[in-house]
Amino acid sequence: MNDVREPIQKRSIEKKKKILDIGFALFCEKGYYKTNTIEIAKRADISIGTLYSYFKDKKQIYIAAFHDYLEDISNQLLEKLSLQQPFSLSSFVENWICYYIDLYADTGQALAQLRMMISEDTDINRHFSNFENEYFLKIIELLKKNGLEQDDLFEKVYTCCILIDALRQEKSAFSHKGLDFNIFKNQVQKTVISLLST
Amino acid sequence: MNDVREPIQKRSIEKKKKILDIGFALFCEKGYYKTNTIEIAKRADISIGTLYSYFKDKKQIYIAAFHDYLEDISNQLLEKLSLQQPFSLSSFVENWICYYIDLYADTGQALAQLRMMISEDTDINRHFSNFENEYFLKIIELLKKNGLEQDDLFEKVYTCCILIDALRQEKSAFSHKGLDFNIFKNQVQKTVISLLST
Amino acid sequence: MNDVREPIQKRSIEKKKKILDIGFALFCEKGYYKTNTIEIAKRADISIGTLYSYFKDKKQIYIAAFHDYLEDISNQLLEKLSLQQPFSLSSFVENWICYYIDLYADTGQALAQLRMMISEDTDINRHFSNFENEYFLKIIELLKKNGLEQDDLFEKVYTCCILIDALRQEKSAFSHKGLDFNIFKNQVQKTVISLLST
Amino acid sequence: MNDVREPIQKRSIEKKKKILDIGFALFCEKGYYKTNTIEIAKRADISIGTLYSYFKDKKQIYIAAFHDYLEDISNQLLEKLSLQQPFSLSSFVENWICYYIDLYADTGQALAQLRMMISEDTDINRHFSNFENEYFLKIIELLKKNGLEQDDLFEKVYTCCILIDALRQEKSAFSHKGLDFNIFKNQVQKTVISLLST
DNA sequence: GATGAATGAGGATTCATTCAT
DNA sequence: GATGAATGAATCCTCATTCAT
Fold first, then answer.
1. Distance CA A131, CA C150 (A)
2. Are C163 and C193 in contact (CB under 8 A)?
3. What is the pTM of this model?
4. Residue C135 to residues B182, C72, C129, C159: CA-CA distances in angstroms?
5. Which residues contact B169 (CB under 8 A, 6 or more apart)?
6. What pLDDT is stored for residue A164 in this prediction?
7. How far, in Å, CA of A146 to CA of A139, rounded?
8. pLDDT value at position A26?
9. d(Cα D178, Cα C157) in Å, to the nearest integer?
10. From CA D33, how far away is CA B66, in angstroms rounded?
11. Reduced to 3 states, what is the DSSP secondary structure of residue D107?
12. If one looks up domain D1-56 in CATH, what number appears?
């Protein structure tokens, strides 16, 4: 019995979205384990029964919430990045960094959390194992389309992504005393450009 | 009130250490929330009551276990790194990477987890907020001692640390399909060297 | 208050019958407690609301379903048995057994279940307490009509019924390892004949 | 982790037994599904946590309770029946019936319930599928030991058991209006003797 | 009349922690 | 000091039933 309701009407869709939004917010704020389904339901202004008519269990809320969030945000990012004309590597990188930080601003530690969940749980693993890769590949595609053809691009892009996400974390959540954000940003920017121009 | 025992006798000290070792292993393997105190006690061959005579609660075991582990491992790393004579940046970096990967091999996702816990929980935050910084500062001190005197070292070292840890994760836990570890490693190495030589 | 609809129109009557048929099938297959009303409604191709407009609650579906089924089947059985002409005890018994096994074939454990429900629940008890008795009495009437007049017929018929139902169970659901059905059947047949000929 | 406690000390054993006794009583009184674990715990004067330290889940309580009860009672019955000297079929049967009715007096519909559970649930099935057979075989062994050697004994004994249990049910739980218990008993007795003497 | 979304009481189970022995 | 039995709050989830549309 796959008794999970597939929302069709507008109000249903909105309700499902609300569960996901509030779930996402709570998962980011308190983590998966400290978030309980009753609180999600309460904050979404629905009963616990309604919540479970949209999602099979708590884990599915987690998966769907992060799936939607990541898909949405990464699409926005890629769209913005592909608009640039004419292409220059330095402005591309600058935009990449700015947009990324901006778009993922309210994620806090949520991405680190997700990575952990991916390695802790089989279902979550199965669902998200390809997610990051696809993002890398789309970035690579974009670079190639603009004439940037070189060896080991996958590894290079991966390195870049790690640095840019570290930058985001530093900004939005995890500030290290004594670290100057702007200097750090310049460094990351230079490093990324240097990686992609060799 | 504060009935947590401070072990004085040898057997006591050993017992406490065993709790921490086994706790650490379990926290790494299953994560904080899926690890339960009874299992720690069982594997440590002591009663749950005894466990609670050494630690106020589960969180304190977590904090102490990671505290000890990190202190121990980072000391080992720093010691090994300071032995090198004569100093050359490229061999220093190569060693740094090798030792780091080696020493932190069994951490799996535990460090990512710790970062998450730091942002989720006030107590853990309070305890570990300075930890990383101190490690950075010691690395910097080491570099300076060997004549490497330049601007923005804190930010540079931070960037290096992020890349090296990404490398470790890639090796021990979180492999991305299509990513060649050796190419990635070469890239990280080159990048770190380049960062520290400007 | 008593808002349960009494179906008058043809479509209504069909709908109610469908609920009862599907309810009966599910109760037999999974038992009362593992059968849920939503599944009944779904399989009957009506909404849960409609289901509840025909029946006050789940228990009433159960009662009505078994009531109708038992009435229907026992009538069929009695009709078939009364057709026999000329009457001979041995062929009557043989037919009784064959028809019974045949007609109640898809009941599985449902009758045992019903007996349990009768002793567990007051409403069900009230409804079915006389049911079996009436069946016994009709069998007795039939026997008497055919000249079989003797003492203690009620007790004898009861004993026969128990044996015949045991036979049915053995066939349709609950096979005991090492028990040969045909030998068992012969035994039951002989015993029933012997009981009714003294 | 098989974390179910195996009681060793006297108090533990008593407590486990109390859970089983009260569980058995409740399962008999209200059936498996209407009995809840909290009520078992309350009536046994223990906390719900303690209950779950003795049993993995509700089903295991059910299985263990019926296992113990049936083993205990059938052993008592077989012991009593094997004491008879010198052996005569008629007195054996008389005793069989009397002891059986007596010993299983407080079972009510519980055995019918168990048979249902056996066909509804795999675990329960696995556990009890051989139980009845073993009882039949022990009765057969007893009869053979006393010189009663004949064909189709398994089927005969099975038939006898069904009749005797019907008698017990009639006495303890499920009285049919108009049925005279003593006449019924005489009939069963005669039938059993007749079955076993051919 | 029909619908099916919404409700929430109820039940099973876990596990950090305490405390009597 | 050591033990581990006992506790019960907390959490996930189900499903009979209602009622607004």
1. 83
2. no
3. 0.90
4. 84, 12, 12, 13
5. B109, B112
6. 96
7. 11
8. 95
9. 12
10. 47
11. helix
12. 1.10.10.60
pLDDT single digits (tens) B112-129: 889 888 888 899 999 998
**Rounded Cα–Cα distance for residues C4 and D39 (Å):** 34
Rounded mean pLDDT, C76-88: 88
Residue B107 C-alpha from the chain's centroid: 8
Single-letter amino acid, residue B150: Q
**For position C129, what pLDDT does the model report?**
84
Rounded average pLDDT over A124-137: 91
A-side interface with B, Cβ within 8 Å? Answer: 30-31, 33-34, 108-109, 112-113, 115-116, 118-120, 129-130, 132-133, 136, 152, 154-156, 158-159, 162-163, 166, 173-174, 176-180, 183-184, 187-188, 191, 194-195
Alpha carbon of C92 to those of C74, C82, C138: distances in Å?
Answer: 16, 9, 14
Q: What is the pLDDT of residue D144?
A: 93
More confident residue, C181 or A129: C181
Structural domain boundaries of chain C? 1-56, 65-197
B56 pLDDT tier (thresholds 50, 70, 90): very high
Q: In this predicted structure, what is the pLDDT of residue A15?
A: 92
HSE-up (13 A, CA, CB side) for residue D35: 24
Cα distance between residue A55 and residue A62, in whole Å: 10
Does domain C65-197 fall under CATH 1.10.357? My reply is yes
